[in-house]
């Protein structure tokens, strides 16, 4: 790994995500949401895979690159609109990360690998993509679980968890159960796993 180039790439991704108008309070500090998510993703990937490659770490940092730039509200309500938005958003994340990495000297093969991980292709057969998915799910549980449950209600949240938890590896689910969850959150996870 070219450490200087990698640090330039991380700085470019962080700078792009610093413009996020959505914020979260984390450890008492208000932060741009996607910048915080990128940092948490990177920590989780490093924890889940101490031998994580440069491509894994860049994908973790860029997984939701400038996510707010393609608002969900521009797509129809319902599952079909949601799925179309997610597909378009994923393609945009891949394009945006390529646009940031190419000027820094990353070649098409390196960029392609980052894009594969961001796209989460071959999750069932690619351990690096599975690690990425585990990290995504863990960041979701850390930062979005309670707001989602408050917005959707317990029953719908359990449905979301029933779709989320099977995407995780046994290691990822084990880490999820170790998170500091409220009694309500633990109960919802237990219901989803039942």
Describe this structure in words.
The mean pLDDT is 94. This protein has 194 residues and is mainly α. The protein has helices spanning 3-17, 33-48, 54-62, 78-101, 108-119, 127-143, 145-152, 154-164, 170-178, 183-193; strands spanning 23-26, 29-32. It has a two-stranded antiparallel ribbon. α3 (54-62) crosses α5 (108-119). Helices cover 68% and strands 4% of the residues. β1 (23-26) and β2 form a beta hairpin. The chain is built from ten helices and two strands, in the order αββααααααααα. The radius of gyration is 17 Å and the shape is globular. The N and C termini lie far apart (43 Å).
Q: What is this structure's SSE topology?
A:
Blueprint: H1 3-17, E1 23-26, E2 29-32, H2 33-48, H3 54-62, H4 78-101, H5 108-119, H6 127-143, H7 145-152, H8 154-164, H9 170-178, H10 183-193
Antiparallel strand pairs: 1-2
Q: Which descriptors would you attach to this protein?
A:
single chain, about 190 residues, two-stranded antiparallel ribbon
Radius of gyration: 17 Å
Strand percentage lies at under 5%
Order of helices and strands: HEEHHHHHHHHH
Placed side by side, the strands forming the largest sheet appear as 1-2
On the 0-100 scale, what is the average pLDDT? 94
């Amino acid at each position: 790994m070219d450490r200087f180039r990698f640090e330039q790439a991380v700085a470019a991704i962080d700078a792009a995500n610093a413009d996020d108008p959505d914020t979260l309070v984390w450890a008492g500090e208000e932060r741009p949401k996607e910048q915080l998510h990128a940092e948490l993703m990177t920590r989780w990937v490093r924890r889940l895979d101490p031998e994580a490659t440069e491509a894994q770490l860049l994908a973790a940092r860029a997984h939701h690159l400038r996510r707010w730039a393609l608002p969900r509200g521009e797509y129809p309500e319902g599952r079909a609109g949601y799925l179309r938005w997610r597909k378009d958003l994923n393609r945009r994340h891949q394009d945006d990360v390529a646009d940031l990495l190419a000027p820094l000297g990353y070649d098409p093969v390196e960029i392609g690998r980052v894009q594969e991980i961001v796209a989460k292709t071959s999750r069932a057969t690619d351990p690096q993509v599975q690690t990425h998915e585990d990290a995504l799910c863990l960041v979701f549980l850390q930062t979005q679980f309670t707001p989602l449950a408050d917005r959707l209600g317990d029953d719908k949240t359990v449905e979301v968890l029933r779709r989320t938890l099977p995407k995780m590896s046994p290691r990822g689910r084990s880490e999820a159960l170790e998170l500091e969850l409220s009694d309500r959150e633990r109960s919802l996870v237990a219901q989803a796993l039942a």
